[in-house]
Amino acid sequence: MSFTSQPVPSVATDKPPHVLISGAGLAGLFLGILLEKAGIPYDIYERATEIKPLGTRNMYRIQDQYKSSPNILAAFEQLGLYEELLSFSKRSIRNAFYTAELEVIGRIESSPAETKTVGYDRILFARPELYNLLAKKTPSNKLHMAKKIVAFEQDQDSVTVTLGDGTTARGDILVGADGAHSAVRKHLYKILNKQDLLPESDTKEMTKGYISLVGTTDALDTAKHPGVLREDSDVWGVIGDKDTPYTWFAFAVPGNKLAWNVVVQLGITPIADEQFKASDWDTQQNQVMMDSIRHFKTPYGTLGDLFDATPVDCVSKVFFEDKLFETWNHGRVVVIGDAAHKLLPSLGAGAVNAMQDSVLLANHIYDIKPTNHENIKTALSEYKQERFNFIKDQYPVSHMSAKLLFGHTLWERILRYIVFNWLPNSMRAKQLVKDSAYRPQANFLPPAPKRGTMDIIPQQPSKRIQRKQEEAKKSATTAATL
């Protein structure tokens, strides 16, 4: 008698899945806060040794400045974080662009009508403030420092991760929220490549087109920098000429400080290419680049004035990398944020998209019931299906924005002149409405209050809540017939 081998079905339980999160950046912390609200167990593993307070060296070397858009603010309201976010933010009303000699290229100013339509102001803040807010809301027993996930194994019943110190942890789902050079993604791709399951495009390196130095000053002399006293924030950008392939920006944040950003296009100037070859953690290399451009003009003096007010060990160097990965999930493993899609950050979209990923992934994890291998695989696949095309559509937009703000080829300069001088305000307002319509929320929490007069793109309802409602309706119908 012969027997046919059949896969052993995974164990099913009514308990929610235990989620292991690699990386305590914005995506990982935001996901943890959402799971906390949903009553789903989780643990966050972070390679850094400690949560460092604002004002010390930035532990992730991330951009220190940040502009939030309406696309994520509704989720902040749901979580009760919106008012606290506003407490360290300023409204972004006016944008002015100049040549290297401070001749006006163009100005853009938001109107009250736009705010009324969209429902939210665009706000500006120092990014470490946001990080501190999310870290503060994360229970300390859920956040494990100096614990980098370096490998994992998964089977029908669980996923087991190996940490850098040799210890292990076991859960039901592994989320790689560990950035553009994600160890989780690399290990997953290594496994899939051996099995010939990895698309060729996912084996290619990310492209690097720009380098950015970013920082936030200490409190400034308000006599020299009167703009920092305004309740709202003026954003100014200076775009260098063909002999100065740099773009430099700054805007005011609370505390009489300026957040600044200097971007240089690779392949045009030797110093940028030297910086590209150097370590992005090297303070001395950052200082060399800063010394070479400190004479650049700004509306309030020179870049050197801002550099002198910023501790050099708080200055970060960031590569503007660009890649949309095709493979986001396999089995019990999924990647989010920069680990799945690295956008050029010219629209401030990187952090917004990372947190939107967290919202939608939390929705799909919440829908898992009972918890078993097949339901987990289905949930992670459906998350990617819901999210992928929206992310894909943003890539050409981010490329165009980068060309407008940071590009220094002849064609890019011509394009910038046309957009700044000939683009009608009505077209810009129409694009703003289109960009603001996508606002994912946690579908297991009460929705945020309706803001603005514009229509919002509807999102998928919770399958789990729908099942509960259908069961309740059936029970009520049965009871009525008895």
Automatic annotation (TrEMBL):
GO-annotated molecular function: FAD binding; monooxygenase activity
Gene3D superfamilies the record matches: FAD/NAD(P)-binding domain
Chain segments carrying region Disordered: 461-482
Native source organism of the sequence: Linnemannia schmuckeri
FAD-binding domain ranges (all copies): 19-188, 312-391
Family: Belongs to the paxM FAD-dependent monooxygenase family.
Regions annotated as coiled coil: none
Protein name: FAD-binding domain-containing protein
Keywords: FAD, Flavoprotein, Oxidoreductase
Record-linked InterPro entries: FAD-bd, FAD/NAD-bd_sf, FAD_mOase_fung
PANTHER family (UniProt xref): FAD-BINDING DOMAIN-CONTAINING PROTEIN-RELATED, FAD-DEPENDENT MONOOXYGENASE ASQG-RELATED
